[in-house]
Specification:
about 750 residues, mainly beta, Immunoglobulin-like, 5-stranded mixed β-sheet, 7 helices, 46 strands, about 10% helix, metal-binding, glycoprotein, cadherin binding, beta-catenin binding
């Protein structure tokens, strides 16, 4: 037994020893956290190797390390130990100093520069930062020289389930058609968890419904919400509130959860037919109601909404289908009954209609529920009213010849009172439509007579309005338009369409058309105008001209011979008789003036004046122009010569006794009033050109002239007529002041 026990102990300790040899030399544990040791091989040992071995073998890093981990949200009385740095160059003599740099070095993480222990001095949150990258280095304590190259390592923050799921887009709203089948998808929701989805089940969510059953269900993993009941009716309940929960840790106990709400609204479908509120409607209407007036409204209720509740209304039967119509009001969803044709209480006192309301938009899925329409009966009672007179025709057209005799009857209008009492009617003409009072009407029988003569050429149509008034009730009146057409009679003779003047060339040829004329007639015969042209009986054998009727109802005048001469006769007058085709025919005589002119070889008229013929034979137009130019030139030379001669005769030196520029004569004598006014002609002062006729004779004494013409005394010259004369007169009370100025 002892041997057997010894073998068992040997078998037990052998693997433990081998495991202890292969594991890192030192492992430390910190409270609530795993610690890590980073070690290195001794570079001193590397230095003791042979040169050949250093060439053949790769130099190893000084640091041997693994990732470090630290739990988030750890809060204890002491800083948490994250791990330890160590190098095999450290013999324990405290000559090596450890340095830490990188993310959070000195603020979040601190290192013991002697032992290499790394502590977290702050509370960490993985959701804020999941890992930190730092750099470790061992230096000489005294010289601070690096003993080895720096090495990077990562401290990862391990996640804990410290965040509940959240619905970031909630609360939710969704719609689903009513009457949907079981399992119809409504919508899907999404919750988020800030925890690490890779580490553990902290972010694994499971969805469930807390409120809203049994109407809706949810897929636990996809969060798709579906209907759990078929044929939900909007008319019974339109809106549902569903409370949805998302729980992490896979839905297990201990997990965190978040909730949101979903409001589901059932949308309408056309699953209900229209229904009239009552099966029988009663309306009454006066017989004189205006066409198009709304008589009444009928309404078929529909539990649906929107376009699913729209209904169209029609009259499908009854004895008033021709008199009434029904239209649909899209806003009020009812039918409006209107009058199409006039009513007559005396003819029919009531009508019965059958109206139908039918849905406009029908859903074929629900067609099996029956017809989506309904019918109702409408009774309309016609009420009696005092109606105005009614003419036998809505308009009248009368015709009268323009030569109709005065007071002759040209037509008649008739009207009656449609009421049972049948009041007598009185007729009159609206004088606003007959301002010239050309027509009259018999107030009792409505006969229209002619009051003034008519002239079709002045006005073809006359439009008047006839008024019919009830004698028993003057407020009941009716009006009717009457159009009177004036018929034509042949009372106007034809005449030339315009004033014609023909020109005949002296060198014209026989048979040449001199002028084409046309005639006009103010009358308007039914078959159109047709004119006959002829010469006066005494001019039938005219030796100079003849006439020819054209197909277009015009007339051409032709020359019978050539050799017309302006010196012998310059103008010819040709009287022409124009007759129409009326009954009886009328005619008039129009005279055509034919002037003989000189023409060029191609027939262009050049001159029609006989004075041109007194020129010498053979004198051309160019020669005549040259002669006139010479005469004008000679006249200009003579005028220039006379002007120069006059300036040459004037003296260049002015005598001293004549070098007086101004003479002022003042008269202080009182005027004689009207005697002064009559003593001279005021027109002389207003017309400077006439002054010379009133100048005094030279040599007369000034005093003699003043006594007879006190104002004109200022106008005379001393020794000769001045070249420039300025007059200024001042009439002030009875004083007369005069200033005269001579310039040489």
């Amino acid at each position: 037994m002892p041997e057997r026990l010894a073998e068992m102990l040997l078998d037990l300790w052998t693997p433990l020893i081998i495991l202890w040899i292969t594991l890192p030399p030192c492992i430390y544990m910190a409270p609530m956290n795993q610690s890590h040791v980073l070690m290195s091989g001794s570079p001193l040992e590397l230095n003791s190797l042979g040169e050949e071995q250093r060439i053949l073998n790769r130099s190893k890093r000084g640091w041997v390390w693994n990732q470090m981990f630290v739990l988030e949200e750890f809060s204890g009385p002491e800083p948490i130990l994250v791990g330890r740095l160590h190098t095999d160059l450290d013999p324990g003599s405290k000559k090596i100093k450890y340095i830490l740099s990188g993310d959070g070095a000195g603020t979040i993480f601190q290192i013991n520069d002697v032992t290499g222990d790394i502590h977290a001095i702050k509370r960490l949150d993985r959701e804020e930062k999941a890992e930190y990258t730092l750099t470790a280095q061992a230096v000489d304590w005294e010289t601070s020289k690096p003993l080895e190259p720096p090495s990077e390592f990562i401290i990862k923050v391990q996640d804990i389930n410290d965040n509940a799921p959240e619905f970031l887009n909630g609360p939710y709203h969704a719609t689903v058609p009513e009457m949907s089948i079981l399992g119809t998808s409504v919508t899907n929701v999404t919750a988020t968890d800030a925890d690490d989805p890779v580490y553990g089940n902290s972010a694994k969510l499971v969805y469930s419904i807390l409120e809203g059953q049994p109407y809706f269900s949810i897929e636990p993993e996809t969060a798709i919400i579906k209907t759990a009941l078929p044929n939900m009716d909007r008319e019974a309940k339109e809106e549902y509130l569903v409370v949805i929960q998302a729980k992490d840790m896979g839905g297990h106990s201990g997990g965190l959860s978040g909730t949101t709400t979903l409001t589901v609204t059932l949308t309408d479908v056309n699953d209900n037919p229209p229904k009239f509120a009552q099966s029988l409607y009663h309306f009454s209407v006066p017989e004189d109601v205006v066409l198009g007036t709304a008589i009444g409204r009928v309404k078929a209720n529909d539990q649906d909404i929107g376009e699913n509740a729209q209904s169209s209304y029609d009259i499908i039967d009854g004895d008033g289908t021709a008199l009434f119509e029904i239209t649909s009001d899209a806003q009020a969803q009812d039918g409006i009954i209107r009058l199409r044709k006039p009513l007559d209480f005396e003819t029919k006192k009531s009508y019965t209609l059958k109206v139908e309301a039918a849905n406009v938009h029908i859903d074929p899925r629900f067609s099996g529920r029956g017809p989506f329409k309904d019918t109702a009966t409408v009774k309309i009672v016609v009420e009696d009213a005092d109606e105005p007179p009614v003419f036998s025709s809505p308009t009248y057209l009368l015709e009268v010849h323009e030569n109709a005799a005065l007071n002759s009857v040209i037509g008649q209008v008739t009207a009656r009172d449609p009421d049972i009492t049948s009041s007598p009617i009185r007729f009159s003409i609206d004088r606003h439509t007959d301002l010239e009072r050309q027509f009259n009407i018999n107030a009792d029988d409505g006969k229209i007579t002619l009051a003034t003569p008519l002239d079709r050429e002045l006005s073809v149509w006359h439009n008047i309005t006839i008024i019919a008034t009830e004698i028993r009730n003057h407020s009941q009146i009716s009006r009717v338009p009457v159009a009177i057409k004036v018929l034509d009679v042949n009372d106007n003779a034809p005449e030339f369409a315009s004033e014609y003047e023909a020109f005949l060339c002296e060198n014209g040829k026989p048979g040449q058309v001199i002028q084409t004329v046309s005639a006009m007639d103010k009358d308007d015969p039914k078959n159109g105008h047709y004119f006959l042209y002829s010469l006066l009986p005494e001019m039938v054998n005219n030796p100079n001209f003849t006439i020819k009727k054209n197909e277009d109802n015009s007339l051409s005048i032709l020359a019978k011979h050539n050799g017309f001469n302006r010196q012998k006769q310059e103008v010819y007058l040709l009287p022409i008789i124009i007759s129409d085709s009326g009954n009886p025919p009328l005619s008039s005589t129009s005279t055509l003036t034919i002037r003989v002119c000189g023409c060029s070889n191609d027939g262009v008229v050049q001159s029609c004046n006989v004075e041109a013929y007194v020129l010498p034979i053979g004198l051309s137009m160019g020669a005549l122009i040259a002669i006139l130019a010479c005469i004008i030139l000679l006249l200009v030379i003579v005028v220039l010569f006379v002007t120069l001669r006059r300036h040459k005769n004037e003296p260049l030196i002015i005598k001293d006794d004549e070098d007086v520029r101004e003479n002022i004569i003042r008269y202080d004598d009182e005027g004689g009033g009207e005697e002064d006014t009559e003593a001279f002609d005021i027109a002389t002062l207003q017309n400077p050109d006439g002054i010379n006729g009133f100048l005094p004779r030279w040599g007369l004494p000034i005093q003699w002239w003043e006594e007879r013409n006190p104002i004109q005394t200022c106008l005379f010259s001393r020794s000769r007529i001045p070249r420039s004369l300025l007059f200024i007169f001042f009439h002030k009370d009875t004083k007369i002041n005069c200033i005269t100025q001579w310039t040489t």
